[in-house]
Amino acid sequence: MEFDRVVDQTHAVRAFSHKQVPDETLCAIVEEAVNAPTWMNAQERKIYIATGDKAAAIRKEYAELGAANTPDRGAYKMGHHSDWSEAAQQNMAHFQDVAARTVGDDGSLLGRAENELFDAPAFALLALPPKPAPWGILDLGALEEAIVLCAANKGVSSIVAYAFIKYPDVLRKYLPIPEDQEVVIGIGLGYPDPDSPLNKIHAGRVPLDDVLTIN
Ligand SMILES: Cc1cc2nc3c(=O)[nH]c(=O)nc-3n(C[C@H](O)[C@H](O)[C@H](O)COP(=O)(O)O)c2cc1C
């Protein structure tokens, strides 16, 4: 696909159809994405992908835990809005506003979708050893975006989401994630449900002048 189109099309999908992503496609996405740079080529990163029955079993357990408002159990927490700058807090508030207006409810549809892991037929979990070097987190972010772009290039939609990492014990039950690895972030992968209002949420971007300075 044209690179401009790939970049243009990588928006968060929050409702996936049941169509599965072939394992070969998932492999090809990761094979390309690991070209992302890392600190002195440390390549400190592991990727675990859940598919098919395992992904379904994880989604089911997450949905039950989420519906029961079970507190998050991961090493990486959501944090608070107050951890962010005023400007970032305003952007987050604006996003929540746009999402609520687009979906047409108080956010419960989005909350349920998060609990159900957006129905993603596959999801990649990116992991690091506990207490990683800060550059390791930066490197994982680069890998995250590379996976998103390489997936889009192959017609696979995605969402990067904290929602995937709330209950690592459930992830470990179905996936061979060793205790010396912590899941830092998840990426849902699949094909969008064309009818869901959740996929009509369009998060804007601040004007370029607010983010870029060239002298
Ligand atoms: C680290 C990270 C965690 C995220 N977690 C969630 C999440 O738990 N639920 C959700 O709906 N979106 C989540 N998102 C998606 C963001 O809301 C989305 O990327 C942002 O609003 C931009 O939207 P766009 O990709 O559609 O342009 C997350 C994104 C990132 C980078």
Strand content: 5-15%
Largest sheet: 4 strands, antiparallel
Helical run tally:
8
CATH class: Alpha Beta
Unreliable runs, pLDDT <50, ≥5 residues? Answer: none
Question: At the fourth CATH level, what is the homologous superfamily?
Answer: NADH Oxidase
Please give the radius of gyration in angstroms.
17 Å
SSE-based structural type: alpha+beta
Bound molecules: flavin mononucleotide
**Portion of residues in helices?**
40-55%
Number of strands: 4
- Named CATH topology: NADH Oxidase
First and last CA, distance: 34 Å
Count of separate structural domains: 1
Envelope shape: globular
Mean pLDDT: 96
CATH architecture: 3-Layer(aba) Sandwich
Order of helices and strands: HHEHHHEHEHEH
Main-sheet strand order equals 1-2-4-3
Structure description:
This protein is an alpha+beta fold and 215 residues long. The protein has a single domain, classed as NADH Oxidase. The chain has 8 helices and 4 strands. It has a 4-stranded antiparallel beta sheet. The mean pLDDT is 96. Flavin mononucleotide binds next to β3.
